[in-house]
Amino acid sequence: MVARNVCVDDGQAFWFSDWNGSVGFVAHDVREFKKGIKEVSDTSLEFHLREDKNDFSAWLEVVLSNKNVADAFWGVKSKCLTGRELRRSLLKCFKPKKKVIKKFTSKKKSRKSIKQSLRRALVGKK
Length: 126
What we know:
Layout: E1 14-17, E2 23-27, H1 30-39, H2 42-47, H3 55-63, H4 67-77, H5 83-92, H6 111-123
Antiparallel strand pairs: 1-2
Helix pairs in contact: 3-4
């Protein structure tokens, strides 16, 4: 899901801070950003998702031009998670999505049977 590794200077870096303004980590690229999510306090993560804000998504989309991961971060915000669950969900945003069509991937079906099922589904036959 992370397409490229853009590295920015301190002026555009993501500064993980908390409610008191204390900075716990500075990220200049996606790799460092992921490391920051692993290492900063829970309160820092919650701070960046406060009220109507989503600092994570905004930085990923505007500064790093990584809309896919940014959209995933918006999805996490809507879950209203805190603590360890929030951290776990944020880290999952970096994993690529697996596209699986369960209907056609049964281990019992042969390759020919799967192709026939797909053909029927695409053509609209039963």
